UniProtKB/TrEMBL annotation:
GO MF terms held by the record: ATP binding; ATP-dependent DNA damage sensor activity; damaged DNA binding; hydrolase activity; zinc ion binding
Signal peptide start and end residues: none
Domain notes: The middle region has homology to RecA with ATPase motifs including the RadA KNRFG motif, while the C-terminus is homologous to Lon protease.
The keyword Kinase belongs to this UniProt entry's keyword annotation: no
One Pfam entry name: AAA_25
InterPro entries in the cross-refs: AAA+_ATPase, DNA_repair_RadA, P-loop_NTPase, RecA_ATP-bd, Ribosomal_Su5_D2-typ_SF, Ribsml_uS5_D2-typ_fold_subgr, Rubredoxin_2
Chain location of the short sequence motif RadA KNRFG motif per the record: 255-259
Xref: PROSITE patterns: RECA_2
Assigned protein family: Belongs to the RecA family. RadA subfamily.
Gene responsible for this protein: radA
Record's protein name: DNA repair protein RadA
GO BP, sorted A to Z: recombinational repair
HAMAP family attached to this UniProt entry: RadA_bact
Organism: Candidatus Filomicrobium marinum
Free-text function comment from the UniProt entry: DNA-dependent ATPase involved in processing of recombination intermediates, plays a role in repairing DNA breaks. Stimulates the branch migration of RecA-mediated strand transfer reactions, allowing the 3' invading strand to extend heteroduplex DNA faster. Binds ssDNA in the presence of ADP but not other nucleotides, has ATPase activity that is stimulated by ssDNA and various branched DNA structures, but inhibited by SSB. Does not have RecA's homology-searching function. Plays a role in repairing double-strand DNA breaks, probably involving stabilizing or processing branched DNA or blocked replication forks.
Length: 458
């Protein structure tokens, strides 16, 4: 006798289930996220079609020799940097980004690069017709690449096609939210459908040693849509970032089981597709106006890569009862804290001024060491006096106004020296390997020292 279909209500935000509908999810407390779904059976390819008796397995010890994880070079050095040296056979990667940011372009270039190197690449498009993908390939000059292309969203059809192509080295699914299984009575993009499709595809990839690359939609907050369990299931999670008004794109790794996290790759969107940027520091500083007040160069670290970027500040008298604070590319809470420290510890008040802060080039900075550069830019705009153009800044500022040491000081200084800077304002504490560094170093122990220096400069 067939098992009766079970109806449950699944939260589309966190994946929690409930026996009946409610306005608010009891797990994540989000409103109007419960959707009725009917589970009529396990997804295809999951291996759960019937109950089986388990068997005892042999336990291994931590000590012993292990094989080094093999890598597949992609031909895109920036992508290899982010993934830790190339793609790992049998691994699953999830890439998310805003619509139109260039995800499909990047993956088509990747699939073509693998195919041109002799590998078998399969590209399943669930959002575009075959003719649309072909037009993009012609624009990118990749029409001759031997990539297997299909426009399909039915999970069983895709799995049957993959079983007929056991030698596939790369499998691209664009996107995972468009797939559906007829064993689940739920709309495509719901938690049950996305989870079932991801589980089945990962199982196939690990069984055949293929690299699986999934595209994920993002929410209005910038997070990959669907439950967090999807990000736990895959081996690597990549975010493709960028501003619509800038040609620069940042590929950032936030999870990587086979390499470092918080590594970035820099691309530039051009007519012929995404172009790799070998020296992003020169790119972000290319249009810099060093004579204008309110600009400071921050020597940062993104993953293992030193990166110099310009921080711009504008302080203007406010006609509002509550002055405006606007930030692009930095944490607004961090700006509020920095303004409070400048007021309480340095006697510089911005209470009657609107404050605007921008990270040039569309880059998003999360590193606390950007505090000192942001403070220098704010003080420069407030006093109307430009900072020395050949100086870089980095250091974390505490609530007491003390300037705290930053990690990888030597790497920041070497990158600054390579790009022609002659001096650096850095924290007083922290050891520096002075080998090959000829910069004029100014060490600060308190933010008040910087405030006095900036307001007193000619």
């Amino acid at each position: 006798m067939a098992r009766a279909a079970k109806t449950v209500f699944v939260c589309q935000n966190c994946g929690a289930t409930a026996p009946r509908w409610a306005g608010k999810c009891a797990s994540c407390e989000e409103w109007n996220t419960l959707v009725e779904e009917t589970d009529t059976g396990p997804p295809p390819g999951s291996g759960l079609t019937k109950a089986s008796k388990g068997r005892a397995i042999t336990l291994e010890s931590l000590k012993g020799s292990s094989k080094r994880t093999p890598r597949i070079p992609t031909g895109l050095e920036e992508l290899d940097r982010v993934t830790g040296g190339g793609l790992v056979p049998g691994s699953a990667l999830l890439i998310g980004g805003e619509p139109g940011i260039g995800k499909s372009t990047l993956l088509l270039q990747l699939a073509s690069a693998i195919a041109q190197r002799g590998g078998r690449s399969l590209y399943f498009s669930g959002e575009e017709a075959i003719d649309q993908v072909r037009l993009r390939a012609e624009r990118l000059g990749l029409a001759e690449a031997p990539v297997g292309l299909a426009a399909e969203t039915h999970l069983s059809t895709i799995l049957a096609t993959l079983d007929a192509e056991p030698s596939a080295q790369l499998i691209v699914i664009d996107s995972i939210q468009t797939l559906w299984s007829d064993t689940l009575e739920a709309a495509p993009g719901t938690v049950s459908q996305v989870r079932a499709a991801t589980q089945s595809l990962i199982r196939h990839a690990k069984r055949h040693g293929a690299t699986l690359l999934l595209v994920g939609h993002v929410t209005k907050e910038g997070q990959i849509a669907g439950p967090k369990v999807i990000e736990h299931m895959v081996d690597t999670v990549l975010y493709f970032e960028g501003e619509s008004g800038h040609p620069f794109r940042i590929l950032r790794a936030v999870k990587n089981r086979f390499g470092p996290t918080d590594e970035i790759g820099v691309f530039e969107m051009a007519g012929e597709g995404l172009r790799q940027v070998k020296n992003p520091s020169e790119l972000f500083l290319g249009d810099r106006d060093a004579s204008a007040p309110g600009t400071a160069v921050f020597a940062g670290i993104e993953g293992t890569r030193p990166l110099l970027v310009e921080i711009q500040a504008l302080v203007a008298p406010s006609a509002l009862g509550t002055p405006r604070r606007a930030v692009v590319g930095w944490d607004s809470n961090r700006l509020s804290m920095l303004l409070a420290v400048l007021d309480a510890r340095c006697g510089v008040s911005f209470a009657q001024n609107d404050v605007y802060l921008n990270v040039a080039g569309g880059l998003k900075i999360t590193e606390p060491a950007a505090d000192l550069a942001a403070a220098a830019a704010l003080l420069s705009s407030f006093s109307g006096k430009p900072l020395p153009p050949e100086t870089v800044y980095f250091g974390e500022i505490s609530l007491s106004g003390a300037v705290r040491a930053a990690a990888n000081t030597a790497g920041r200084l070497k990158e600054s020296q390579k790009l022609g800077f002659s001096s650096a304002v850095i924290p007083a504490l922290g050891e520096i390997e002075a080998t090959g560094i000829s910069l004029d170093l100014s060490r600060l122990s308190h933010l008040k020292m910087l405030a006095e220096r900036v307001t007193a400069c000619d």
